[in-house]
Amino acid sequence: MLVVKKMISATFCECVRIVRHLKIFREDQEVIPRKPNKSETLVRSSNRPVTLLNFLGKVLEKVVQKIALLTANIIPKYQFG
Predict the structure, then answer these.
(1) DSSP for the chain?
(2) Which residues pair with 55 in a beta bridge?
(3) Tens-place pLDDT, residues 5-39
(4) Using CA atoms in the order 69, 4, 57, 81, what is the torsion angle rounded to 10 degrees?
(5) Domain interval for residue 19
(6) Integer Cα distance of 67 and 46 in angstroms
(7) pTM of the full predicted structure?
(8) Which residue, among 37, 31, 11, has the nearest Cα to 22 in the 3D structure?
(9) Which of 10, 12, 25, 49 could disulfide-link 57, Cβ–Cβ 3.0 to 4.6 Å?
(10) How far is the C-alpha of 65 from the C-alpha of 28, rounded, in Å?
(11) Could you tell me if residue 36 is inside a domain?
């Protein structure tokens, strides 16, 4: 677990250093969830697809957002939240 944590941390640091959001973090996957007791032969338009995003990409976005806010001194140091 510690090795994985170090690898993710190193990847994030490198992304921030080169100011790039890696393509693998931007990939998504569309799935159509099955409804219970429904036939799969129904029209596709009756089922709405759900987009699953890479969670590491979302974490990286939050990390970059926090870094940007802290370095830009937008939020006062005494403010919590």
Answers:
(1) -HHHHHHHHHHHHHHHHHT---HHHH-EEEE-PPPTT--TTS-GGGS--EEEEPHHHHHHHHHHHHHHHHHTT-S-TT---
(2) none
(3) 888 888 888 887 887 777 777 788 888 777 777 66
(4) -30
(5) 1-29+49-81
(6) 42
(7) 0.52
(8) 11
(9) 25
(10) 21
(11) no
55, part of any domain: yes
Domain count, the chain: 1
* pLDDT, tens digit (0-9, with 9 covering 90-100), for 30-74: 887 777 776 665 555 667 778 887 888 888 888 877 877 777 766
In a domain, 23, yes or no: yes
**Number of CB atoms found within 10 A of residue 51's CB:** 8
Residues 6+ apart with CB under 8 A from 33: 47, 50
Within its chain, how far is the Cα of 56 from the centroid?
5
Residue that has been written with the tokens 């987009």 in this structure: 51
Determine, yes or no, domain membership for 39: no
